[in-house]
């Protein structure tokens, strides 16, 4: 059962999402919140797996709340669910560790899929803002938003780990990486844990940005058994 917390300042939206998601067999809404401070209080009591986070909320907005959540609870996945497709919102959400960015108005089926995808370690970006994300990553690759890593650790990355980094940079989920590289999902998770530790990075979003910056997505790291 995937435990979901809903954060939105509009009561009608909160209640509607709760009804829709609780009708799904493997999803349970543990709480609904009106702002970021309520989210942080609720997490301590309910320990959700995934948070559906609105951007514009009073007291503490969704981007700042995402930053706080990922700093204190890195294993909790955050999906930004908003009406805004502003570049700054998108970049801030990704920078602070959001696993998804989708626009309100998506179908119930698409929302359920997004929750299940990020809960399994993947990412979900609304098609309507995909071009904006590509543009942002292009700027990052040009060094406008540099991600810095531990230099010694980067020299210790193995070819097997580079292949995983490459697929993270291409936006693949753990399951997709496992299928592509003929590995188990557990092995992929172990690789990612070691990679993040070596590079001193917070999460896979930072890793994906760094992979694009370094050109890892375009390199050939040989066969999988190397």
Automatic annotation (TrEMBL):
Alphabetically ordered keywords of this record: DNA-binding, Phosphoprotein, Transcription, Transcription regulation
Where the record annotates domain HTH luxR-type, the positions are 150-215
- Determine if Phosphoprotein is one of this entry's keywords: yes
SMART domains cross-referenced by the UniProt entry = HTH_LUXR, REC
Q: What is the protein's given name?
A: Two component transcriptional regulator, LuxR family
UniProt-listed InterPro entries: CheY-like_superfamily (IPR011006), NreC/VraR/RcsB-like_REC (IPR058245), Sig_transdc_resp-reg_C-effctor (IPR016032), Sig_transdc_resp-reg_receiver (IPR001789), Tscrpt_reg_LuxR_C (IPR000792), WalR-like (IPR039420)
Instruction: Tell me the Gene3D superfamilies matching this sequence.
Output: 3.40.50.2300
Instruction: Give residue numbers for the modification (4-aspartylphosphate).
Output: 54
Q: Which Pfam families match?
A: GerE (PF00196), Response_reg (PF00072)
Where does the Response regulatory domain start and stop, copy by copy?
3-119
Recorded superkingdom: Bacteria
């Amino acid at each position: 059962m995937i435990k979901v917390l809903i954060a939105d300042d509009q009561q009608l939206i909160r209640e509607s999402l709760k009804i829709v998601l609780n009708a799904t067999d493997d999803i349970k809404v543990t709480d609904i919140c009106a702002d970021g401070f309520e989210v942080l209080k609720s997490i301590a009591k309910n320990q959700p797996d995934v948070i559906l986070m609105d951007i514009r909320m009073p007291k503490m907005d969704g981007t700042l709340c995402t930053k706080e959540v990922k700093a204190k609870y890195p294993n909790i996945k955050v999906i930004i669910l908003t009406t805004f497709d502003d570049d700054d919102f998108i970049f801030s959400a990704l920078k602070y560790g959001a696993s998804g960015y989708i626009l309100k108005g998506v179908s119930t089926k698409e929302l359920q899929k997004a929750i299940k995808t990020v809960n399994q370690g993947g990412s979900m970006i609304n098609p309507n803002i995909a071009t904006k994300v590509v543009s942002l990553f292009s700027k990052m690759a040009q060094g406008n938003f540099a991600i810095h890593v531990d230099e010694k650790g980067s020299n210790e990355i193995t070819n097997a780990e580079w292949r995983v980094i490459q697929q993270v940079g291409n936006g693949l989920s753990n399951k997709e990486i496992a299928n592509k590289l003929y590995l188990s999902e557990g092995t992929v998770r172990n690789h990612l844990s070691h990679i993040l530790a070596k590079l001193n990075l917070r999460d896979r979003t930072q890793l994906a940005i760094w992979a694009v910056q370094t050109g890892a997505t375009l390199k050939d790291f040989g066969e999988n058994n190397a």
